[in-house]
Structures are given as C-alpha cells and as structure tokens.
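Dear colleague,

Following up on Tuesday's group meeting, I ran the structure prediction for the four-component complex that the binding team flagged. I've pasted the input sequences exactly as they went in, so you can double-check that nothing got truncated or mislabelled along the way. The structure tokens for the whole assembly follow below. Feel free to forward this to whoever is handling the docking comparison.

Inputs:
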Amino acid sequence: MTDSTSPSGKRERLVSSAAALFHHQGVQRTTLAEVATDANVPLGNVYYYFRTKDDLVAAVIGSMEGQFRAMLRDCERKATPAARLKALAYAWVEMRELLVNYGCPVGTLNSELGKNVEGSGRQAAGILRLLLDWAEDQFRRISKKEASDHAVSLIGGLQGAALLTNALRDPNIMTTQVRRLDRWIDSLP
Amino acid sequence: MTDSTSPSGKRERLVSSAAALFHHQGVQRTTLAEVATDANVPLGNVYYYFRTKDDLVAAVIGSMEGQFRAMLRDCERKATPAARLKALAYAWVEMRELLVNYGCPVGTLNSELGKNVEGSGRQAAGILRLLLDWAEDQFRRISKKEASDHAVSLIGGLQGAALLTNALRDPNIMTTQVRRLDRWIDSLP
DNA sequence: GTCTATAAGATGATAGAC
DNA sequence: GTCTATCATCTTATAGAC
C-alpha cells in the first residue's frame, strides 16, 4: 500500500503478527492489543503506523497478495501449463497442517470479509481474482475451451477441500482432493 | 438441544433472528442486543432462554442441522442416486442470490468457528459430516469405488463455488459450477 | 518517532423488581 | 416467566509527554 519500510521494522512486525493472528483467530476476534503484544510494540504506538484497524487489515491483505504473487512466480518456473497448475494445487497440500487448524488464509479471510465489509472485502477478493486469472491463463494454453470455468473449478476445488480439511480436522482430505485435481488436469483434451 | 417450545415463541424468534444475523454478519460481529431487537425481545430476557452467547450459537447450529436434514429428505424423493445428488447440488443454485451477499450458511459458519472454537466448531462440522455421509451413501449406490472421495469432491465443490460466488459477487459462478458437477455425476461409471 | 495514560463507547452478563 | 437497570470488562482510538 504505502511505503512499508520503517527504520525500526515495527511496521513489518505489526503486519506479520496481524497476519498470523487474523489467520489463527479471525479478524474480528483479534484485538489490536494482541497484535501489539505479539509484535512487541506498545499498544498506543500501533496507531502511529495504522490509523485504524481497517488500515491494518488492508496492509495484511496487501502483504498476503504479495506472497501469492511470489507463489505464482514460483509455479511459473515449471515447463508446462499443466505442471504449473499442479504446482499451485500442491502448495495447498504442503499447507495441510496449517489448514487443519486454521483453514486457508485466503479462504477464511474472504469468508469473513465477504459478508458485508465493502472496503477490505473487495480487496480480499482481489487475491482470489489473481489466482483465478493466473489459472485461467494456464488453462488457456492447454485448451481455449472453458479456460475460465476450469480455473473456477480448480480454485474452487482447492478452497472447498481446504474448508473440509479444516472442519473435519483431517489433512488427508487436502491430499486426496489435490490428487484428484491432478488427474483431472491430466485428463483434459 | 433442550426443549425448544416456549409458550410465547420467544425462544424460536431468538434462534431465527440469530441464524439470519449470524449468516449476514458473522457470529462475532453480531451482538446479543441486535438479536434481541430483531426478535422483539428485551435484551435482558435473552439470558433467560440462553445462558451465554455460545448457548445461542449452539441452538442456531442445531436448528440449521434440522433444516439440512429436511433438505436431504426432500432430495431422497428422487428416483435415482444420481438424481438425488443433483437435487442436493441444485439447492445451492437456488440459494445463489443469498450466496452472493453472505456466502453459504454452513460454509461461513464452519470457516468462522473452525479456527479455534472447540465447542461449537465441532458442532458446526457435524452439518458438513451429515452432508458428506449422505452423499457418500448415494455415491455408493452408483459405484462402490471411491464413494467417500466422490462425496468430498461434491460437497467441497459446492463449498468452493459458494465461496467464489460470494467473493466475486457473481451468482453465475454457482450455476456454472453445479452444471459441471451435474455432468460429472452423469459421467461416473 | 516512540510511548504512557486514558477517554469513549460497545458488549456480555447479572441482580432483582414485577 | 418477564423486564429494567446496570455492572464489569474489553476494545478502538486519542491526547500529550518524552
């Protein structure tokens, strides 16, 4: 968002702590006092870096978007579109223990903010759009037909599997479902 | 949970109002004062029917589970297992305008409570388990193989599509994805 | 830039009259 | 069973010293 380099690194620590706490507890359940404590920053000082809690939420979403952009760049190092799509899917398998306890960072954030929150809700949706657009681009290289719907099926499949993984506290759900998505990608004409 | 028939119907009104508000705003963002106002019950009186907010949450989940049991019974009136599974999926298409604004009632509830809340979190997961077990049973009548994984793919597919429908504010996502699930069910051996 | 102290309001929950 | 009044606490945010 704005310039994020502060000499003391407090801003970065606040964003990092907030990201973890928002993921572990949800945005609404997390207080600024908790974030401050976790980041080793005095409570009152939080407001020097973020004028409101919403500003902090926005910074966390921005940081998360950067991480997903990096993840996509990593996937792009694979040789074929199919391999790139699979690499993306297996990233969720690697997160499976985290998913069991707290759900998908993007999914739960969108679920919480998608209800009414117009400001940060739209911003969180941007990360899903980023993933969808990237996947659509890869699918289009496999076949022009239905690339957009394929992308929605893949990202939706990952999100649904992550939700069940979390609700049922079973990491194998993510593994099994990604394996099925893998085979589905291979089966495309 | 406990006996739910109160002469004045206040208990029912409280559960009904809470269910809607929890879905529209999330559990954490909804105050007991809002629930009381919406149900036309004085705030202090809420505590006669539910000793804590968690008790109210439990009652809402219980009521929701009853509604899903009824939905499954409805689906069972179809002649074939495939038709029953499709009927379940199309229930999400019929909810699509609600999904656009607030997400799936079961999905968002599990997303919010799945983070740490051990009490009601487990209870909310029970509804997903109910859907999964029912779907698995239907899939098994089509083919013994992979019935459990098929069920996870179907319910997960619905949940993922609902999440994207909500995040992207696009009801067509639900429609298109269920149509794909429909064709997938037809393609099973 | 950094921190302490505290205001201002919301929220879950209770006491006790009726 | 029902309701009013209120407590105790938490939480966001600000004022102002250093």
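Chain A has a mean pLDDT of 95.

Cheers,
M.
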